[in-house]
Design a protein that fits this description.
Helix 1 links the parallel strand 1 and strand 2. This protein has a five-stranded parallel beta sheet with strand order 3-2-1-4-5, with helices on both faces. It folds into two domains: 127 residues, Rossmann fold (3-Layer(aba) Sandwich); 50 residues, no CATH class. Helix 5 crosses helix 7. The protein is built from seven helices and five strands, in the order E-H-E-H-E-H-E-H-E-H-H-H. The mean pLDDT is 92. By secondary structure, the protein is α/β, with parallel strands linked by helices.
């Protein structure tokens, strides 16, 4: 019986970007199965609740699958706690990570060494496509808080995400208001 190579792709996905979706698409070509694990970061207040982030990822993944029907199956789960614990529960042998730049790489290598020592899990890196090298969820949140036209986000996030960001902005979400205040205080 052939061994199945299952990878877990963890992140906060707050919000999910085209860069994240690119990692999912390319990860499907490398592994037999991929679990997208939407987590809670204990040091950050999220813009979107865990349920909202899981729902957005679950809504967008079928489009990734449709673009390459022969790729590995993808499942999506929400988790809290350590990534290595979520990986073990999912049966993953590998943690998949996207890397945009040298700063990401430095941080991710440190995490990879720790995950290997603590849990025996290897990490596979996918280097971001050129068009995604400078896109981050933090940048998306900043543009949402300070920008007037969220249509400028179209090259960075799917239309579903732009719609949800507009809703958060209209609701004066505290995370966006804090970003706006911090920017105004810096001027």
């Amino acid at each position: 019986m052939a061994r199945t190579h299952l990878a877990i792709y963890p992140g906060s996905f707050d919000p999910i970007t085209f860069g994240h979706l690119d990692v999912i698409a390319r990860g499907r070509r490398l592994f037999d199965e991929l679990v997208v694990a939407v987590g809670r970061h204990p040091g950050k207040e999220p813009l979107f609740s865990l349920d909202e982030r899981v729902e957005m990822v679950r809504t967008l993944v079928p489009d990734v699958i449709a673009d390459d029907p022969d790729g590995a199956p993808v499942s999506v789960l929400g988790f809290s706690g350590l990534t290595v614990d979520a990986a073990k529960r999912a049966g993953a042998a590998v943690i998949l990570r996207g890397v945009r730049n040298l700063s990401d790489l430095q941080y991710e290598v440190q995490q990879a060494v720790t995950n290997r020592q603590v849990a025996g899990l290897e990490t596979a890196f996918i280097v971001a496509g050129q068009s995604f090298a400078y896109t981050s969820s933090s940048l998306i949140r900043q543009i949402t808080a300070m920008g007037d036209d969220l249509g400028v986000l179209a090259p960075m996030v799917p239309p579903l995400v732009i719609d949800r960001l507009r809703e958060k902005k209209a609701d004066l979400h505290p995370v966006l208001m804090r970003l706006l205040r911090n920017h105004t205080d810096d001027d």
